[in-house]
Amino acid sequence: MQNFTFSNPTKIIFGKAVVAKLAPEAARAGKKALFVYGGGSIKKNGVYDVLTAALEKEGVAITEHHGVKPNPALSHVRAGIRKARTRNCDIIVAAGGGSVIDEAKAIAAGAKYGGDVWDFFCGKAAIREALPLFTALTLPATGSEMNSGCVVTNEETEQKYCAQGAPLFPRVSALDPETTLTLPRAQVANGAVDSLAHLIEGYFTTKDRDNGVTDEVVHALARSITASTERILKDPADYDARASMMWSATLALNGLAACGYGGLTFINHAIEHSLSALYDIAHGAGLAIVMPAWFRHHLETDGPARLEKFGKAVFGAKTAEGTVRSFEGFFRKAGAPVRLSEAGIPASDIPRIAENAMGLIRLWGLQHEQPEIEKILRRAR
Amino acid sequence: MQNFTFSNPTKIIFGKAVVAKLAPEAARAGKKALFVYGGGSIKKNGVYDVLTAALEKEGVAITEHHGVKPNPALSHVRAGIRKARTRNCDIIVAAGGGSVIDEAKAIAAGAKYGGDVWDFFCGKAAIREALPLFTALTLPATGSEMNSGCVVTNEETEQKYCAQGAPLFPRVSALDPETTLTLPRAQVANGAVDSLAHLIEGYFTTKDRDNGVTDEVVHALARSITASTERILKDPADYDARASMMWSATLALNGLAACGYGGLTFINHAIEHSLSALYDIAHGAGLAIVMPAWFRHHLETDGPARLEKFGKAVFGAKTAEGTVRSFEGFFRKAGAPVRLSEAGIPASDIPRIAENAMGLIRLWGLQHEQPEIEKILRRAR
After folding, report:
1. What is the DSSP letter of A211?
2. I need a surface site. Which of A5, A89, B140, B163 has the fewest CB within 10 A?
3. C-alpha span between B212 and B363 (Å, rounded)
4. What is the full DSSP assignment across A166-193?
5. What φ, ψ does residue A96 adopt, rounded to 5°?
6. Among A141, A157, A178, residue at a domain's last position
7. Contact B228 A221 (CB under 8 A)
8. Statement: the pTM of the whole predicted model exceeds 0.80
9. Within a domain: residue A1?
């Protein structure tokens, strides 16, 4: 077990009818909110009405910034920053999934920064302050509601990059599982894949064989994610399965599931971000394609020990290859693609995808060269 | 899954040689520390020298308050409060186990309060502020290093009571597993029993059958505690087992292991506090006596479902009674007493023990009468 620091100041309010409780929390921090949301799903599931009414009741003035896309775009982030400045917003309220929260984080940091917000993503500047952020989560997947990272896509340069900093932790996040009852099946699948991916990045980063409690916690969360997803696919109205999935996805990337692993290399994410940046496919779908290929590469380079341990505990698999097949089986059952061809991406694009991924790999200081990434991607044809 | 709020602001610095890192964290909050510790074990394991040197290097003046006992005494807490006030201490630094940290918390709250500190324990006042607290943990057991509760014994009234409040969360806690390598075997056992007890209080409070992810997390922590304790008993120098135990015990009572359970009734603790208050036995030893008896009572009143689920996941037990026997077997193997007689407590004292326990049971609003508590205790003869 390696040394680690764990610190997570986000307050979570979880359960039925908790969205309105976000308003008094936000009102204590500011009275002029930039209200960030996506394409309008929150108008269908009731979150928009509940939250705007509660904020108005608390005397919080709202400036809307909507239309956040999956793989949130830098141009839209910059527009949000301009709006927050023009209207002198002193807090950010975000309602939606990980993309909405990520864009809200980028705006929160950018609004307090003299330079261009992209500086935070390409390593030119560190995030020293941000507007206080309050979130209502409606899609369990990214964990952004309880961590200090965010991902934004620069459409001009085709780069899907990350920024991180303690000021980005949401102050309070409201998680109402009932707001996820109407999620489309594809988003259920993508959320399951993404949260599992967060667990395995740390689990397969460690070089220690002995990670006692954190291995146990990762297995516990992975079992919970796979079991609750299968229940949700059978019965979308299953509240307890929705609740279990929502809290599991949050815990999968709030720091807990990597304690003692000596960091997370995030190699699957580095490769997937290239797919999202080039083809604008859903992050979860991209990960479902990359992970099995990367697992088989890991098996070749690092041996079967970690795959065997994970697979035995989570899927009841007997071999490392059995673990990879269990992942593929779960992803397929959920409806996610597990090969590039299934997402309509031609094998001839592999060099271009790998080249794009190398941007992040170099920025993060990971020890991989382009031929290795191409080799992994060829396993995903 | 019931609604819940999760909020835990304590920063954890974990691993080898981390104790000195507490000093710069403390120095940012204040320059006059009350330094709280126990009977001198920290002088043997090196924590005293490392921490005092680091604090002095940061320009923090130290007023010592040592001699904290297991089951910390109200009179000693009051003496610490007087000392903190006289010396105008602006921070508290505590080094030791749960008793030391609990006494430090009581002093931190009492120093900022006009009335008597016992008011917080008997429900007469709420904790609204406290001196900032920094801890170096040397005994994994109580979880006090990452929660907002504390337990103190009023020697005059023979009451072992609790106080709680958000200002009591330590700002930063340093957890170095190497400082636990020299723990006496009895303290290893007591820590294992106590941390398991924290897990089962929530697990058996819930009336839901379906607690997905939190049940999984509880099982994971319980497996980690039992497995690492067995390794430590075989090889006290096993660093990874010490590390796993230390982090597991922290997570067992930092809020995580009760999310969605609808609260913790803490009935085993209510009964045990009576044993500690009347006989000054170690908290872990008292819990090892109470828990099997309470489990058998629970089996009679609530049926086998929860005992079966827990036992299957943690011990591989096949029946509810098999689960109780597995607990007893684990406690015995660790060297803890599992019957009143093994701790030299006569069965004729049962009415007196139950009467004392009723004080806490009434204060906490639990639905139990004295005859029921006596019945449970008779199972522990």
Report:
1. -
2. A5
3. 31
4. GGGS-SEEEE-GGGGTT--HHHHHHHHH
5. 155, -150
6. A178
7. no
8. yes
9. no
Q: Are residues A171 and A232 in the same domain?
A: no
Give A-chain residues touching B4 at CB under 8 angstroms: 12, 14-15
- CATH number of the domain within which A307 lies: 1.20.1090.10
Both tokens of residue B151?
């337990």
Measure Cα distances from B372 to B55, B197, B273, B295, B346 in Å: 51, 20, 17, 13, 18
Closest by alpha carbon to A137, among A98, A108, A167, A106? A98
Write out the two tokens for B25. 């964290």
E-state strands within chain A = 4-6, 11-14, 32-37, 61-65, 91-96, 133-137, 149-154, 159-164, 172-175
Quote the number of domains for chain A.
2
Q: Are the beta carbons of A221 and B214 separated by less than 8 Å?
A: no
Contact A25, A171 (CB under 8 A): yes
Task: Determine the residue of chain B that is closest to A214 in CA distance.
Answer: B244
Q: Is A151 in the same domain as A164?
A: yes
Specify which residues A152 forms β-bridges with.
A161
pLDDT in tens, B288-298: 999 999 999 99
Chain A residues with CB-CB distance to B314 below 8 A = none
Q: Which residues of B touch A137 (CB under 8 A)?
A: none
Which ipTM did the prediction report?
A: 0.96
In this complex, do B240 and A7 lie within 8 Å of one another by their Cβ atoms?
no
Place of tokens 């400082």: B179
Which residues of chain A are modeled with pLDDT < 50? none
pLDDT at position A234 = 96
Q: How far is B317 from B311, CA to CA, in rounded Å?
A: 5
Shared-domain flag, residues A192 and A334: yes
Question: Are B13 and A5 an interchain contact pair (Cβ–Cβ within 8 Å)?
Answer: yes
- Rg of chain A over Cα atoms, rounded to whole angstroms, equals 20
The Cα A208–Cα A4 span in angstroms is: 14
Query: Considering only CB atoms, which chain A residues are within 8 Å of B15?
Result: 1-4, 260
Looking at residue A131, what is its pLDDT? 98
Q: Give the integer Cα–Cα distance in Å for A251 and A198.
A: 10
**pLDDT, tens digit, for every residue of B95-143?**
999 999 999 999 999 999 999 999 999 999 999 999 999 999 999 999 9
Taking the alpha carbons at both ends of chain A, their separation in whole angstroms is 36
Give SS3 for B24: helix
Domain membership flag for residue A265: yes
Closest CA to B179 of B38, B25, B21, B17: B17
What is the C-alpha radius of gyration for chain B, rounded to an integer number of angstroms?
A: 20
